[in-house]
């Protein structure tokens, strides 16, 4: 059985860049790696509905915190068996965003702490009811929110097809989400976390993650 790793962080933190560098490092060592990004736009109707809502479609859907959280959770529910199948045939499955993203953004939108009802609702919904596979390690890419916002804006300017959604344009939401992520990581929410910065050595991180003992305790939902 392969290992399940997750990269988390606010929009513009550099998750895609770190993911590519980790995959390259593992593949150089001869490991088989599969990468999945959530939400799975153009693959999941739930993800597409969420994206459309965040760009002003589907009435007041985007205004409902719980409706949006459910759409993102259903996207992962739909991918559950795919993830398990990939874990059975590969050394590593790397996810760009996962359940903690839903927990952090939901708590931030409701202006709750990471130990509040919203985070517990997400944990129960996704890990207990939807049986999402539990990550071996969750990696928080901790980047200043202002820098992340600059990167997201530059990315939008460079790509005419890439328009920031309502979450990405909301600086206050991004700040609250960053704080929620920090508390989730500090508490090792659901499974072990690693907090890294933008200057992390991807080769060393890749080795550290893969060589982590399998006996490290994970929280069973």
UniProtKB/TrEMBL annotation:
Catalytic activity, as annotated: dTMP + ATP = dTDP + ADP
Occurrences of domain Thymidylate kinase-like (ranges): 7-172
InterPro entries (alphabetical): P-loop_NTPase, Thymidylate_kin-like_dom, Thymidylate_kin_CS, Thymidylate_kinase
EC number: 2.7.4.9
EC primary class: transferase
UniProt entry keywords in alphabetical sequence: ATP-binding, Kinase, Nucleotide biosynthesis, Nucleotide-binding, Transferase
Single GO MF descriptor: dTMP kinase activity
CDD domains, sorted: TMPK
Domain of life: Bacteria
Transmembrane segments: none
Keyword Disulfide bond in record: no
Pfam families: Thymidylate_kin
Family designation: Belongs to the thymidylate kinase family.
PANTHER family the UniProt entry points to: THYMIDYLATE KINASE (PTHR10344), UMP-CMP KINASE 2, MITOCHONDRIAL (PTHR10344:SF4)
Role, per record: Phosphorylation of dTMP to form dTDP in both de novo and salvage pathways of dTTP synthesis.
Descriptive protein name: Thymidylate kinase
Origin species: Rhodococcus navarretei
């Amino acid at each position: 059985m392969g290992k399940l790793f997750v990269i988390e962080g606010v929009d513009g933190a550099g998750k895609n860049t770190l993911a590519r560098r980790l995959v390259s490092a593992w593949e150089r060592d001869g490991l088989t790696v599969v990468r999945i990004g959530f939400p799975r736009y153009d693959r999941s109707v739930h993800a597409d509905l969420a994206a459309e809502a965040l760009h002003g479609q589907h009435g007041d859907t985007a205004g409902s915190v719980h409706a949006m959280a459910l759409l993102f959770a259903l996207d992962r529910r739909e991918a559950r068996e795919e993830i398990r199948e990939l874990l059975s045939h590969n050394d590593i499955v790397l996810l760009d965003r996962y359940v903690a993203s839903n927990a952090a953004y939901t708590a931030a939108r409701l202006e709750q702490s990471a130990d509040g009802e919203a985070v517990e609702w997400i944990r129960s919904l996704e890990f207990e009811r939807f049986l999402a596979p539990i990550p071996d390690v969750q990696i928080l890419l901790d980047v200043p929110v202002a820098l992340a916002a600059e990167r997201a804006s530059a990315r939008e300017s460079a790509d005419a097809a890439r328009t920031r959604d309502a979450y990405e344009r909301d600086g206050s939401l991004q700040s609250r989400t960053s704080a929620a992520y920090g508390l989730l990581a500090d508490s090792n929410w659901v499974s072990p976390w690693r907090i890294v910065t933008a200057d992390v050595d991807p080769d060393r991180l890749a080795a550290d993650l893969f060589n982590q003992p399998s006996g490290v305790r994970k929280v069973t939902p």
